[in-house]
Amino acid sequence: MNLATLKQVYRSKDLRRRVLVVLGLLVLFRFLAHVPVPVPDNAALANFLKTVFNSNKILGFADLFSGGALTNFSIIMMGVGPYINASIIIQLLTQVVPRLESLQKEGELGRRKLNQYTRLLTLPLALVQSFGMILLVQQTSKQVTGQDLIGQPNPFQWVLMMVTITAGTMLLMWLGEIITEKGVGNGISLIIFCGIIARLPTTAGQFGSLASGDTGKLVTLVFFLIATLAIIAFVVLLNEGTRNIPVSYAKRTRGNRIYAGVDTHLPLRVITAGVIPIIFALAFLSVPGILGQLLSNAKTHWIASTAKELTVLFSTTGAVYAICYFVLVVAFTYFYTSVVFNPKDIAENLQKQGGFIPGIRPGSQTATYLQKVLNRITLAGALGLGIIAVLPFIAQSFTQSQVLTFGGTGLLIVVSVAIETLKQIEAQAITTSYEQY
Predict the structure, then answer these.
(1) Does domain 13-139+146-198 sit in CATH 1.20.1050.10?
(2) Residue 131: enclosing H or E segment and its boundaries?
(3) Helices 301-313 + 276-295 axis angle, to 10
(4) I need a surface site. Which of 103, 316, 380, 405 has the fewest CB within 10 A?
């Protein structure tokens, strides 16, 4: 964004109002992150959760998405996770349920109905996830401290906590939709973006204390900062990388007029799937660890021993976890790309509009060609996402410090959301400047 765009944002009343709406609602989100769910000792529970999440990358990743609300045991501790899960489920169902697939092709009205289904599905998912999160915190506190920091709630208190946490998630979903409609950018993405950015002061403070406590690590810290800038450049290159497929449109006759052909291109993104593969991989890898923690105290000996072996095998500091993480990210990148991009539909649409790829016959040969190109560029994108996902493990092995870890996933989300939001602001600024004439 250049200076002229900033001036245009300031001069345009509508655009200035949209930006202020975004800033105001994000401030409200940060306020809600510090409103705790009522428990007997919130301070003791917050200190315990901070210790646990710092030692567990899965829970730490979830806390990163919530902007620290999970550590504070806040009413928005689940963030927009249930809404994202509901969106993914609905998107997958559109590929197998004919009714949902037809809605997807009905334009704006169909999208509104799918959005309504997503909201309805978010509610039960939030209720189930809130129960699981409270139970996980309760079991973990008993194992580590020997006491229930939740306060041994009765059934009424359980219902009250679940309803409160679910209401917080629904409130965040509503705020995200207001940002999308009344502000600039995608509201859900901006909420996640704000949650990640909110952790930067704490991370900077940890870096400062590390350098002041041991001057010998100053060189390591400088190297880390340089490497972080290089990773940001890599993330930008990966996020913006596209393969432009040339497309030509034949001459068309309408009435007594003949319209000349047009040459354009079809952009194929290197990472069509975005960060969804990383979220899928984390969800799968979290299952063994959570089951291990919940079943480690089982009365049946073989169940308890198996649960402990799962906990050790899928420890977030082990090589098995990092290897499985990388493989799952690559696999899910291919899977989700095939879900959101259908070469057959693209080829049919091009043929209906009179478009063709030079040197390729319209129809099935075009679909085969697009699938071949997509597989090749997806390989580069999948490997790039896999490297970004395991960057914290690589950094920790070199620096021998959990503070100096590259948050590759966080960087990817921040860069993607920032670029997309700036593009929308620039587009609206240009539109506003044209309207003056």
Answers:
(1) no
(2) helix 108-145
(3) 140
(4) 380
pLDDT of residue 401: 56
> Angle 200-213/218-240 helices, nearest 10 degrees?
150
The full 3-state SS of 168-198, as one line of letters, equals: HHHHHHHHHHHHHHHCCCCHHHHHHHHHHHC
Which of 189, 188, 48, 143 has the alpha carbon at shortest distance from 59? 48
Give the whole-angstrom CA distance, residue 416 versus residue 241.
Answer: 12
Contact 354, 249 (CB under 8 A): yes
The DSSP bridge partners found for residue 286 are: none
Just give the CATH number of 201-406: 1.10.3370.10
Rounded to the nearest angstrom, the gap between the alpha carbon of residue 169 and the centroid of all alpha carbons in its chain is 16
DSSP, collapsed to helix, strand or coil, labels residue 241 as: coil
Question: 83: how many CB neighbours lie within 10 A of its CB?
Answer: 25
The residue ranges of DSSP E strands in 171-309, in sequence order, are 242-249, 252-254, 257-259, 262-269
What is the per-residue pLDDT for 208?
A: 65
Q: What is the spatial distance between Cα 188 and Cα 194, in angstroms, rounded to a whole number?
A: 10
User: Can you say whether the dihedral through the CA atoms of 156, 158, 159, 160 is positive or negative?
Assistant: positive
| Angle in degrees, CA 321, 136, 145, rounded to 5 | 100
- The rounded distance, in Å, linking the Cα atoms of 90 and 120 is 11
The residues facing 267 across adjacent strands are 244
**What predicted TM-score, i.e. pTM, was given to this entire model?**
0.78
* Domain residue ranges in the chain: 13-139+146-198, 201-406
pLDDT at 102: 83
Place of tokens 């914290």: 392
* 3-state SS class at 243: strand
Tell me the per-residue pLDDT of 240-296, one tens digit each, with 9 for 90 and over.
888 888 888 876 656 566 555 677 888 888 888 777 787 778 777 777 776 776 677
Q: How far apart are CA 27 and CA 19, in angstroms?
A: 13
